[in-house]
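G., the chain you wanted modeled:
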Amino acid sequence: MTRTLTVVAVAFALLVAGCSSFGGDAPATDPTPTPEPISTPTPTPDLTPNSTTTTTVTRSSDDPYADPTSDTIGWEDGYWYDEPIDVDQSDGLTDAERRAYVGRSKARVEELRRQEFVRDVRVEVLTREEFAAREPVGTDEDDGGPEYDRWNEQVWEALFIVDERDEISTAFDSLGESLVLGQYFPGEDALLVVSDTPERPVIDNATLIHELVHALQDQQYNLSAPRYDPPTQDGQLARNGLTEGEAEYVTDRYVEQCVTEWDCVATPASNRPTPDYSRLNLGVVLVVVQPYGDGTAYVHSVVERDGWEAVDAAHENLPQSTERIIHHADDAIPTLTVPDTARNGWERYDINGDGADTAGEASMYVMFWYQGYQYGNEVVDRSTVVERDGGRYDTYNYTSPPSQGWGNDKIVPYKKGEQDGYVWVSTWDTEEDAREFSEAYLRVLDGHGAESVGESTWVIADGGFADAFYVVRDGRQVIVVNGPTVDDLSDISEYAR
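Predicted structure as tokens:
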């Protein structure tokens, strides 16, 4: 599926049946309440900087804000992380205020992350309209053109999130136009923030911290490196579970310091966007924000267990699945191959080598969640999405009986002229896991009016998902074949013959 995410900070709210609307922490607003009690991460002596950082210097008690003789953690652009600054955003930032605000924010990111900025970071301020026009957000650019877009549409359709009448690119465009407050561009040492008054900008406090963490990641690990460009949706979400999770974790620690220790620059409430939710596909939004919630708890668990050195190691050996981000468990993924047995003109796409994408546990959860939200088909209990089973940093819960126990999956789109279809094979840890998934999937079909027309075969006659489906469970494996008609199913895959 999809190059789902770039390195963005997203503010959002989703509606959950039986619950009031809930907001995300990416980025958080300036704090006023007392934070919940949390356990303290691994002590500072164990938070060893990597080889590109410098050591902390001793500050003079007579003049604690004197500039150091050499660059050091916690001091940037002439400002210490705890140095008072005279900045008021109520009427926007002057150039001098902006320099002080950004400089001290960089110093605070260094202090919290225990790493050193080694290059300057350029901060650009644009209106929302200028920001939306500058760069598509929400997807990694594949440069595959119409062929890639068509392939990608089939993956989102397989998840019953974007139907044949809509386009995933439109869903991402709407997200960027409505919700994104900032974006860092790897390799450019530049981040953009959104403000209604760029000549006297208001810069959301937590957005700035979040994006500066991405700038620091880029300088320390090179976010443009090939390992940060996994080919599948699940891999991309897992990567973002680390990169976005780390940015959110540092931002959360910053918010806590603002409440207890630091004087922080307030962001006027009027700077927050008021999203037009009628334009948003909340299934897509819930997929996009998964790394921000689960990733924060994942990074917190890594730091508490083994310190920041373990986060450094994770950047060298990225998590491979959302299962790992959700459950903090080993993500050794068993090999899965889907044989190409198409005939009569049906063929795979020349994308990702085998023409396949991997949805993964998080996207499968959203597939089931979205059926209740959008179509009134309560396949899973949607209210549990706001449960914090993982503690203070676990903002949302992406677990459900039919999506847990994931082993691997492959979605393989097919084409024949203007016709489309796909094969989706998933493997599960146990036969019971496979049974729960297959039964939930059949409830999804039923919610769209599917009728049984033969052994293991269903047809949705009307609507945006109108197609034929072959669904069978074989031990720990579930197989779905989709095509325009029942006759097409056997031509697309031998599974349906």
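The radius of gyration is 24 Å.

Shout if anything looks off.
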